[in-house]
Amino acid sequence: KKPAADPAAAATATGDGRELPPAGFTRDSLYQLDAVYTTDGGGKFTLAQLGGRPVLLAMFFASCNFACPLLVADLTRLQGSLPAAIRDEVAIVLVSFDVARDTPEVLRKYRDDRLLGAQWTLLHGDDDAVAELAALLGVKYKQEADGQFAHSNLITVLNPEGEIVHQRAGLQGGLLEAAAALVL
After folding, report:
1. pLDDT score at 28
2. ∠ Cα 168 70 165 (to 5°)
3. What is the C-alpha separation between 100 and 79, in angstroms, rounded?
4. Residue 55 to residue 71: CA distance in whole angstroms
5. Quick one: pLDDT at residue 180?
6. Using CB atoms within 10 A of its CB, is residue 146 exposed (0-12), middle (13-18) or buried (19+)?
7. Sign (positive/negative) of CA torsion 171, 38, 91, 8?
8. Is the pLDDT of residue 6 over 90?
9. C-alpha span between 39 and 46 (Å, rounded)
10. By CB distance 3.0 to 4.6 Å, which of 36, 54, 111, 166 could disulfide with 116?
C-alpha cells in the first residue's frame, strides 16, 4: 500500500521502521491508496472519496460477454435487496482492468446502456493502479490472445472506513451475506 500523496497525511515511520497509515485511515483501509482514477464522467477520483459510506466494489471489463454482465446484475439485485434506510447510502463501484479499451467514454456508454444510477461509479485507471487494487482485493485477471480477459468474479464490501468486511466469490448467489455485511 502506498502512502497518501498529501504530505500532511503521509505515513510516518515508527521507531521499529514500520510505517503508520496516513492520518484518518486504518491500517487495513483501501482508502490510503494514492492512485488517481478517471470516472466515466471524466473527473479525477481517488478511493478515499468513498469514505464515510458502505461500498460495493467489483472489477470488470466493459466488453465482457459472460461473467461481467452477471456480476453487474448481481450488484443491481444486491442494491435492490437492501433495506430502504441504507439503500441510497451505498456506493457501487466498478473498476475496469481493461485499461486500453475501457476509456471513460466507453465506461459512460456502459453506464448509459445498463441504466446504472448515480450511486454507481465507473473507474478507469492506469496499469499500476489497477494491478495494485486487484492484488489487494484478491482479483486475478489476465488478457487472452483474443483481447478478452480471464478473471476472478468477486464482489467486495467495504465499510465506511474502506476496510474489506466481506467478499462474495463467483457468480449468482451469496447476496444475502453481502447485504448483511452492508447493514452491519
Report:
1. 85
2. 20
3. 29
4. 15
5. 84
6. exposed
7. positive
8. no
9. 10
10. 111
Q: Is the dihedral of CA 47, 101, 60, 146 positive or negative?
A: negative
Using pLDDT thresholds of 50, 70 and 90, give the confidence band for residue 24. low
Q: Give pLDDT, residue 39.
A: 97
Helix (H) or strand (E) holding 49: none
Give the model's pLDDT for residue 184. 63
**Cell 481517488 -> residue:** 46
Q: How far apart are CA 50 and CA 44, in angstroms?
A: 13
Please list the alpha-helical segments (H only) found in 2-149: 67-81, 84-87, 104-114, 127-137
Helices 67-81 and 175-183: crossing angle in degrees, nearest 10, is 50
CA distance 47 to 49: 5
pLDDT tens sequence across 105-125: 999 999 999 999 999 999 999
Confidence class for position 12, pLDDT limits 50, 70, 90:
very low
C-beta atoms surrounding 153 within 10 Å: 19
Cα dihedral: 9, 10, 14, 16 (round 10): 160
